[in-house]
Amino acid sequence: MCLFKFFLDKECITTYNTVIVLIVLIHNGTLRFTLKGGFVLIKIDNNSSKAIYEQIYDEMAKLILSGAVKPDEQLPSVRELAGLLKISPNTIQKAYRFLEMDNYIYTIRGKGNFVGNAEKLRSIHIEMLKKELFKLIETLQRAGMSDDEMLKLIKEILDKKNDQEDLC
Question: At 135, phi and psi to the nearest 5?
Fold first, then answer.
């Protein structure tokens, strides 16, 4: 388990309805927390050049698209999540607002924020990624790379990614 490889400065467990949120502040400045008792589902890096609300957005979108968080499941409130993460509620609200604009989540006034239909979002997301991949392949072909070289490059990248996952 990845968590055992790091020196933990602080650990906090709380429940929000049926959702368990675990917060671990890692010694290197990275903040990680998990929903539903799994481990290390969201990573926030305070040293990143990417804004914290964008990191929260990206990580929540990954969770939703992967099915780790189920449709119609209630998310922690803005205030609760902000308190757990020790960041401004405005940052959480901004991430939630962008997630809602992109239909990852929806809000029921007075009740909270809930996960949207992940399967529809996932198929749209995959189609967008296919278009990006097509453009990248065209660029590599214009640069003179053969299909075999591209396949070899993809295999190298996948092997490297799998090796990194094995470290955890």
Answer: -65, -40
